[in-house]
Amino acid sequence: xxxxxxxxxxxxxxxxxxxxxxxxxxxxxxxxxxxxxxxxxxxxxxxxxxxxxxxxxxxxxxxxxxxxxxxxxxxxxxxxxxxxxxxxxxxxxxxxxxxxxxxxxxxxxxxxxxxxxxxxxxxxxxxxxxxxxxxxxxxxxxxxxxxxxxxxxxxxxxxxxxxxxxxxxxxxxxxxxxxxxxxxxxxxxxxxxxxxxxxxxxxxxxxxxxxxxxxxxxxxxxxxxxxxxxxxxxxx
Length: 236
Description:
The protein has six helices and five strands, in the order αααβββββααα. The protein is mostly helical. It has two domains: 1-39; 41-83 and 120-235, no CATH class. The strands form two sheets. It has a three-stranded antiparallel beta sheet, with no helix packed on it. Helix 2 (43-78) runs parallel beside helix 5 (159-193), helix 2 packs antiparallel against helix 6 (206-227) and helix 5 (159-193) runs antiparallel to helix 6 (206-227). The longest helix is centred in the N-terminal third of the chain and has 36 residues, at 43-78. It is elongated. 27% of the residues are buried.
């Protein structure tokens, strides 16, 4: 899980920073442009903000679970080295005339593709279950908050909040896609054409590939929503 956590932490950190900066810029532009408009931040406004923020965050977190799930699935389809970093088995050490068994800092000694490496064969099953559970729980939270947003919008709609939500989501997922797509392509090409003989030297392409698979449809969805905004002028 370490390699997955590292990549996802980097992606989410970049996403969070960009969303924050993008939100500040959007708010400045919005209120500067519409100086004459009066916006009252009452409880109903705060409730709308709550639903939008939780929807945005829960969707992003649900995608992490889906990436973990897809990564584990691809290890069954394309092999363990495609999805996980592997370590060499430590050489036996003689202590007081006795030879110890080979040790692994993580996992257990086993043979994969004819090579002796350290790996926990329960890791794939655990990540399938945990990733799917993570995804389902977060997507339920996302759906419930979208329903709640739909209900409160029957009383009053805040178009500017919806535009901010779509704008920030578009920026965030486009950045993740721009990072993950070339990374996935690079690692995939190297895995197919320049794969080293030792599987412990392989850089697994599965995680960037999974991130790209998950991100691209969401990216396209928010791009379409943004283009359909009333403020977008299309010259026909």
